[in-house]
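Final report, Chapter 2: Outcomes

The project's central promise was a pipeline that accepts a single protein chain and returns its three-dimensional structure in a standardized token representation, suitable for archiving and comparison. That pipeline is now operational. To close this chapter, we reproduce one record exactly as it appears in the project archive, with the input sequence first and the structure output second.
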Amino acid sequence: MTGWLRDTSALERPGWDLSHLRTGLVATAGLAAVGAPVTWLLRDGRAAVWVLIGLAIVAVFFSSGVWLVAKAGAIDDRLTLPAALGSYLVKVVLLGVVLVTLRDRAWVDSLALAWSVVAGIVTWIGTHLWRVLTARMYYVDPDYVEPVRADPDRADLQ
């Protein structure tokens, strides 16, 4: 590529670690496995379905954003912020359109949807926070060994 992006074709860029997505998806599935039956027992089946829809919305939104940022970062690190902000803007606008469209529909259980979205967001943020606090991120490569270069002025390096 030319222009302001670096040509990464000759460089070997490490892949982005997306293992925290699995943790978030598993936690969301666990939340759904508990939340939907409890909601069914306390309210009704329609509310339980909206709990599942709310959790699915959160899982798709978080997963797609992380995936897009990782793909942008694989191209060039400077693309991660625009990708994050752009995907956030698209998701907020899309969610706004859906919520305004469904606003006064009798078949929508907005309370169940809202609480499941809040619970899903807290769960995803919790899994991200756990990942950041427990991940081993080095500022320097611990396995890097600087090569010894011959110095004509030092006999001990030759």
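Archive annotation: The CA atoms of residues 30 and 78 lie 35 Å apart.
This record, like all others produced under the grant, will remain available to the consortium after the project formally closes.
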